Amino acid sequence: MRYMKLIYLMLLSTLFSSYINSFDFNNRNSWDTRGSPKISYKEYIQEIKNLKPLSDSKKGKEKRSFRVKWYTLHGTDGLSNFLGAVCKTPKYGGDSECYFEERYSSAEAKAILNGILLLDEMKKKYDDINWGVGNGYEFATIAYHASSGRDYEMTRSERNDLANALVSDNLTKDEWNALIEYGIPAAKALKNSKTIDIGFKGQVEAFSQEYNDRIEKRLADIDIESGGLLSLFSDMNYFADYPEIAVAKYKNSAQPSLKTRFEKYCEDIFDDAAIRRGGRLQSSYARKLDFCDWDTVNPFITGIYSIDADELKNYDANIYFDAFYIQHFPTSFRVEKFEHEFYFGIGPEVLFNAKYGESSGLDFAKKLINLSTEIRNDFYKDVRSREDIKDKALLWGKFASDLGFKKLISPQSDTEKRIFESFENFIATDEFRQSILAAEAEENINKLLADQVVKRLIDLKTSMEVVDLCYESRSGYVTVYISLIEYRKLKSKFNENFNKTALELDQEIKRQIDVYGLDLFIENNVDVDSSFLAMGFSAGSWTPELNEVCTMYKLKLEGFDFFDYLE
User: Fold this and answer.
1) How far out from the chain centre does Cα 97 lie?
2) Exposed, middle or buried: residue 339 (CB in 10 Å: 0-12, 13-18, 19+)?
3) pLDDT at position 26, please?
4) pTM (two decimals)
């Protein structure tokens, strides 16, 4: 009996080896096992399509064939060593190779296969919305946009990873993971969004009468669906500062900055490529765009985030979802420290709805209802005294007196009625009005201080003040920090750089600062590190540490980076 079992096992092993070797699989068993083979996204998709009939088959032999081929494709000898595979015998002899344990069942593998095919279907659909390039970025951008209102959330980095995977010539483990983790959920969401009735179907031309009518209708429908909340928040100007904050984040700091991009279209008048790019951008915007005037450019950048139909009518929907166009807008509608950033998706979504007659699945009515509920609950939460009511009123600041806000927090119980009455009494007092004026003044100053040019001016002034202290602490000594001649040169260079930098100030920011006086405003916001002052700038207190600090700031005035010197 034992002898028969042994024969049986040997026979089974031989049959299995022959079975495995019978799979040609585009000669993938002949891949060089010393390194991972290359496979592009397109090639990978074709392999998946070849496996589809086997995965759907009811026959046991073909089910087993699917399982083996799936794990051979994704195993150690397949795509970047990340799934695990079954044992197989090399085509030209040698010992059998077993590649880890299989992590996925046949059902799981089939689910991934179907998800990948759906992803490719959605990619092809949305890649065609611009220029027929088909580079994957449009799908990735739309997926990123749609993620803000769904159960999955995609970061800008993940969006880029997905886009790269969709055009990869050599899929890596990380790129494959991007397809599975980001691409498939996005594809499912976009597929399911077809079931959402937005009131119209089919594509229309941008700027046509039907396009404009659709924009108006879609905004009106969102307002109706939300019980009038869209117009209420609009009348409150609740999100009014959001676009400006988003632009401020990228205006000067991104590489290249938003301002730099538009300046190129203004200044490079003999650069054919720049002229073409500027023309392309202008063609997707109905108003005249003066690239040399930031007062024209800024509304163009912020207007796409509007919830005003007349403003949105100026934009082609593709301007937000194309790789070229999106470089000219804040690349994220997620603004740090702002909880309700979904607002940034309303305008682009309405434009997308209007042009293509489809939804990406974003339910803004639900978002607005949730926001209103959250505001109301937060207002009445933990109110136990008049001081608590004062705190709530001051927290809401200028919104506290708004009729829209009062509507949001309308009382529904006797306790809430008492709180509401006490709240209304307080916001009518001089104490509240003075507090609001002070808060608005502080907010305005903080906005000015956030400007990159203002920061540079303060930085220059700070460096000069430190150098002043350093010079005066050693003036009159045999051993001086710097000579009088060198000090005067530094002072002259500071004045030159300060005045030159001041010319870069945005005109609106300059107008606001001029109310205080530029020099006085900058000086009042200089904050010399107390640790430097603690070293002591009095006579006889000169130390190597203080000399090092002074030298650093001297270098900074001379144009050397402070932190580069530290390294």
Assistant:
1) 45
2) exposed
3) 39
4) 0.72
